[in-house]
Amino acid sequence: MKTFISPLLTSVGDVVQRAKDAPPICWLDEFLEDAELKRPISLNRPLIVLLSGPPGAGKSLLAQQMCYNQAHAVCNRVQGSLPSLIITSETTSTALIHNLAKLGFEQRAVAQAGAIPARYLYDTLDQNGNLGRIGNHVGAPVMLITEINGITTKPSISTFTRQVKDAWDKALDNQVLMFDVPSILVVDSLNVFSDVRSRRKLFRAIRSLFPRQPSYLFLVLDTPEVEPSISPALHQDWEFIADVSIRVDYAYGTGDYFARHFEIVKARLQGHVLGKHLVKIVKKPDISPRHGWVRQPGAPGRLVVDPEGAMPYIESGGLFVFPSVHYVLSRTRTRQQLVYAEPIRPAVNWGIGGDYTIAPQRPAEWGPGDIAPLNVQGAPVRQPVTRDDWEGPNGRLNWPVEWCYELVGGGVLLNQCTAIIGHRGARKSYFAYQFILDGIANGERTLVLSFRDDPEAVRGTLSAILQAPKYVQYGLTALPNNPNNPEIIYQRPGYVAPEELLHRVITAVGEHNPTRAVINAVDQWEASYPLLAASPILLPALIDFLNVHKVTSMVVGVERAGGPTVGRGLTSQAEVVLSFEYCRIPWPPLLRPRASHGPVEDSFAHDVELLQHQQMWPSTSPKVVVRARRVPRAEAGFGRAVLEYLPTAHGQAAGLVMHPLAPEYHEGEPIS
Question: Which of 208, 355, 482, 602: disulfide with 368, CB 3.0–4.6 Å?
Answer without folding.
Answer: 602
